[in-house]
Design a protein that fits this description.
- The protein has about 120 residues and is mainly beta.
- The protein has no helices and 11 strands.
- A hairpin with a 6-residue loop joins strand 4 and strand 5.
Length: about 120
């Protein structure tokens, strides 16, 4: 299993970034996927998740309405569109593959992780 994130960088407050996660080594279309983030000195936290079909999405309250998770099963790729960025969104963002548990919000619900892509929001 390999998950490779890209698309991070520096953005101004109010700006946008689009993260991508290229997946390989497993049947991508069979698994829920998620984005987590970790700021310096903080625990890794749930950002968003999407079911295997893309039909249902989940968000943490702080990003709902600003971020959109999506997937392209034909391209084995997961996305996170981030709009109206805030300085508090600054973190290392990880994509993760679900263990196929019935929960989506905990680190332990996922068994494989990418290396992360840095998002910095600053003027």
């Amino acid at each position: 299993v390999q998950l490779v994130e890209s698309g991070g960088g520096l953005a101004q407050p109010g700006g946008s970034l689009r993260l991508s996660c290229a997946a390989s080594g497993f049947t991508f279309s069979s698994y829920a996927m998620a984005w987590f983030r970790q700021a310096p000195g903080k625990e890794r936290e749930f950002v968003a998740a999407i079911t295997w079909s893309g039909g249902i999405t989940y968000y943490t309250d702080s990003v709902r309405g600003r971020f959109t998770i999506s997937r392209d099963n034909a391209k084995n790729t997961l996305y996170l569109q981030m709009n109206s960025l805030k300085p508090e969104d600054t973190a290392l963002y990880y994509c993760a593959k679900s263990k196929m548990s019935r929960s989506y919000y905990q680190v332990d619900d996922y068994d494989y992780w990418g290396q992360g892509t840095q998002v910095t929001v600053s003027s």
